[in-house]
Design brief:
Chain lengths: 93, 118, 522, 153
């Protein structure tokens, strides 16, 4: 029963995905590119950075990068939290 | 200019990766395999995102000593970079939890280690 | 003050974040200073949220463009498309923001003594603050990819906190299930974002709402969004992970997790009503939401009746209550295209659903906190092993009674005022929905009475002779929520006028939300 | 712990790996790379040390406490740079046009200039610090834990 449901879900999902991706613009010829054109044209002037990706990361979409750094911080904190000793050393010694 | 290839290979490859990873996630019982499935799902989504921004014959969007010509779109690259780092973080945390589960139950089988029923 | 209000959308997100980064540093030197930092930052954030809410009710939607030369310069001069990340706060966002501010403050205060005997407290509070950041970010952002990033922050921090008590195996499994579900859901969201980006080359919700065509790709993206967010809120076919994760977390975290699932619900509403608001095939999507909402209500409560573990029992009730909100808002969505019906009962149904979110966000964390208080001294979550605790834990008992009466919709408590709003309006749409709702409500009351009886009533058990009332900070945390319940009970019409109707109107008409960003087009 | 050959080679290589990583971080705004990528390169060097030497030896070199402080301060620097612009708007790039990293490069393709980019190089540096400290802490904690040792608070 569970396997059958699993296969149905999988087939429906994959069918939709493959159908979906065939409807996207042809690879290499995007439909609309207003935002990206603006960024490529103006990033040198507005941010002074030659690397447009760095300009996007740290200027145009800087909050995403802050979030990304935060996620890394969260994961580090989480890993250290989960691998901690559950008893304090000071009390035992 | 390159000739246009009618099949959108990168998009199809991304869809295929996502499909395979869903197969793994739905049917595999081993927790490590489950994590590998999620890593593949992330890889598929990242491939999809980064191939959205490609322009035929484009160069990398970095002005330092670049040849003349179109540049590929820069926002999908930034999104993909963000998404890769996020997935590294998620994988690290998942592996930690699996190590802890293994210490407690001595098993990586999701059926065996499931103590809670309901 | 004016500058503070202008910058408040970003400050509300960033202040807990800054506090989270400072917590490990300060915690190394002094425990007391760390506790003060956590509480003070959350109090300040709560103050900012209320100030922002007041300003929004007077001046309308707040737009904050990050990194531009002016906060309201949402579109670069002489250009047509928003380029930078834009935070956008309207009535709906700030409604959820108020809830999140109150509950996170209560949870942080409650945690101060709830986890006082455990190791790893610095990291616990760091993660708690990060979770607060993630929640606020999800509610206030006007950018789809940014929504994804904050969704991930909230879920990673949440998963690590669920697994906080590492000496038990079930906590690790609960945390693992939560992070697997979150990872899959957020990757689906990311795929859907990619589909939208491919067609319109934008990530801004308001701009996308203006240009969206409802092509086949958009429909697939909508499906992915809804499945992902429904999965995160524990809608019924995808609810199996929900009690496993919620029941094993520390009680304060469970209370906050309830609100993160509300935040996912907010994201689903934002996508249905604002992003797809102009083009969506409302009756079909509305009915799908209603049917799954009904299932959620019913399955949740029937599973809850059989539970012996107090936290699992409450988790199933949380699933069931989430169903009410889906039904209320689903009815509103189903009649969205019909102004007449919308005015007669659609708006009321949506207001009821949204009001129920507020009430649920007050009484469900309260109930989880009382469950945590029981666990704090008895060391067990098994209801059959408890008994006679009312003699020792007077405050906890009173607070539990308030929560129970409220969740079962007993007049005149706040749960009643939102449920009656849902029942009345939904009855005109389809009577079966109301009847199911009332049955679920009765079952809820019955099961909570039973749980009350086995935990609190009866003779004092000999093994709980040493039990005393829980520490003061835990009581303060619970009293904050109970005070909220009492306030809503006393002034329901005030609450509805001030925050519920603006939120419902923000959902019904996406126009102001869109023009706040794109209106600057010359 | 591996043979003496591996350890000697690792000892020599780590210098080059760290320098390459720092190069990628510092030149993030003019060539491909940046804080995350360069940080990952440095951490790969640390993983190499972890393989060549035992985790116990590495633990003496990289204290958990120090890593934690470095990571938090990297994050605080990043968010502080963002706060610096709040006179205008949060994340406003206020260093463009000033003597510090403020030059504007010639528009269009050209050679890079290190003194450009405003706050971008500084943010890259902060993120690089954070990634190095954070990922090293994770790798080290996992290695120590599989050896039976738990992280102290």
């Amino acid at each position: 029963m569970r396997r059958v449901t699993g296969w149905i879900v999988l087939i429906v999902l994959v069918a939709f995905l493959v159908w979906g991706v065939t409807l996207i613009h042809p690879f290499g010829y995007p439909d609309a590119s207003d935002m990206d054109d603006y960024i490529i044209e103006n990033s040198q002037e507005e941010t002074g950075s030659n690397n447009v990706v760095a300009a996007v990361l740290f200027d145009y979409r800087a909050l995403d990068t802050l979030g990304e750094a935060t996620i890394l911080f969260t994961a580090v904190m989480g890993v250290l939290l989960l691998l901690r000793a559950s008893k304090r050393k000071k009390e035992t010694s | 200019m390159m000739e246009y290839i009618p099949l959108d290979f990168p998009f199809l490859a991304a869809a295929l990766l996502v499909g395979i990873s869903f197969y793994i996630i739905i049917f595999k019982k081993n927790l490590i395999k489950l994590i590998m499935g999620i890593a593949m799902l992330a890889a598929g989504v990242n491939l999809f995102l980064v191939s959205l921004g490609y322009r035929a014959g484009g160069t990398a969007p970095i002005y330092t000593d670049v040849p003349e010509g179109p540049m590929v779109m820069s926002v999908p690259q930034a999104l993909t970079l963000t998404s890769i780092v996020i997935n590294v973080a998620v994988l690290a945390l998942m592996l930690t939890m699996v190590i802890r589960i293994y210490r407690h139950t001595g098993s990586l089988d999701s059926e065996k280690s499931r103590r809670l029923k309901g | 003050m004016a500058a503070l209000i202008t910058h408040s959308p970003i400050l509300i997100i960033v202040i807990p974040l800054l506090a989270a980064f400072l917590t490990p540093l300060i915690g190394m030197t002094s425990r007391k200073a760390r506790n003060v930092l956590v509480v003070v930052s959350l109090v300040f954030v709560a103050f900012l949220v209320f100030a922002l809410a007041r300003d929004i009710s007077i001046n309308g939607i707040h737009v904050y463009t990050l990194g531009a030369t002016s906060p309201d310069l949402s579109i670069p001069t002489g250009f047509m498309v928003p380029v930078r990340i834009i935070l956008e706060v309207d009535g709906m966002s700030v409604f959820f923001g108020i809830i999140w501010a109150i509950v996170s403050l209560a949870a942080a205060i409650y945690s101060l003594s709830h986890i006082a005997s455990e190791t790893g407290q610095n990291r616990f509070f760091t993660l708690l603050l990060l979770m607060v950041t993630g929640g606020f970010g999800m509610m206030f952002t006007g950018d789809l990819f940014n929504l994804f990033v904050f969704l991930e922050i909230a879920s990673i921090a949440g998963a690590a906190l669920i697994a906080f008590r590492t000496k038990f195996a079930d906590t690790q499994e609960g945390g693992f299930k939560y992070i697997v579900v979150s990872a899959i859901a957020s990757l689906m969201v990311l795929f859907a974002i990619g589909l939208l980006y491919a067609q319109y080359n934008s990530l801004n919700i308001a701009y996308l709402a203006q240009v969206i065509q409802y092509t086949t790709l958009d429909k697939i993206a909508l499906g992915l969004f809804l499945i992902a967010f429904a999965m995160k809120t524990g809608m019924v076919p995808l609810h199996l992970w929900f009690p496993d994760a919620y029941s094993v977390a520390p009680a304060s975290i469970t209370g906050m997790l309830v609100i993160t699932s509300h935040a996912c619900m907010y994201a689903a509403f934002r996508i249905c009503f604002t992003l797809y608001g102009g083009v969506i095939n409302a009756p079909v999507v509305g009915w799908i939401i209603i049917i799954f909402g009904l299932l959620t209500m019913f399955v949740g409560v029937t599973m809850a009746v059989f539970q012996k573990d107090v936290m699992r029992f409450m988790s199933y009730h949380a699933i069931s209550q989430l169903g009410y909100m889906w039904v209320g808002v689903g009815v509103g969505l189903a009649v969205l295209g019909n102004p007449g019906l919308l005015a007669t009962y659609g708006r009321d149904a949506m207001s009821g659903g949204i009001f129920h979110i507020l009430n649920h966000a007050l009484y469900k964390p309260l109930l989880f906190f009382t469950g945590g208080a029981l666990f704090h001294y008895t060391g067990t979550r098994d209801l059959t092993k408890m008994g006679g605790l009312a003699h020792k834990m007077k405050w906890t008992t009173i607070l539990y009674i308030i929560g129970t009466l409220s969740i079962s919709g007993i007049p005149p408590l706040n749960g009643f005022s939102s449920k009656i709003l849902i029942y009345e309006s939904v009855y005109q749409f389809n009577p079966i929905l109301t009847i199911t709702g009332i049955i679920v409500s009765i079952l809820t009351l019955a099961s909570f009475t039973k749980a009350f009886h086995s935990a609190f009533m009866g003779a004092e058990l000999p093994e709980y002779k040493e039990v005393k009332e829980v520490p003061r900070s835990m009581i303060i945390g619970m009293v904050i929520l109970a005070a909220g319940i009492v306030f809503v009970t006393l002034f329901p019409s005030l609450i509805v006028d001030w925050i519920i109707h603006p939120a419902a109107d923000a959902l019904i008409d996406p126009g102001p939300y869109i023009s706040a960003v794109t209106g600057a087009i010359p | 712990m591996l043979t003496k050959i591996v350890r000697t080679v690792a000892n020599q290589l780590i210098l080059f790996i760290v320098i390459f990583g720092l190069y990628v971080i510092v030149h993030g705004h003019i060539t491909p790379g940046g804080g995350f990528q360069g940080g990952a390169v440095v951490v790969s060097g640390i993983v190499m040390l972890l393989v060549a030497f035992s985790s116990q030896e590495l633990k003496k070199l990289l204290r958990e406490r120090v890593l934690s402080i470095v990571e938090s301060s990297g994050a605080v620097i990043f968010i502080g740079l963002a706060f610096a612009g709040i006179g205008t708007v949060f994340f406003y790039n206020l260093l463009v046009g000033t003597p510090i990293f403020g030059r504007v490069p010639a528009i269009g393709p050209g050679p890079g200039d290190i003194w450009t980019g405003g706050v971008i190089p500084l943010m890259n540096f902060a993120v690089g610090l954070k990634v190095i400290a954070g990922l090293s802490a994770v790798v080290l904690a996992l290695a120590l834990f599989s050896g039976g040792e738990e992280v102290e608070e």
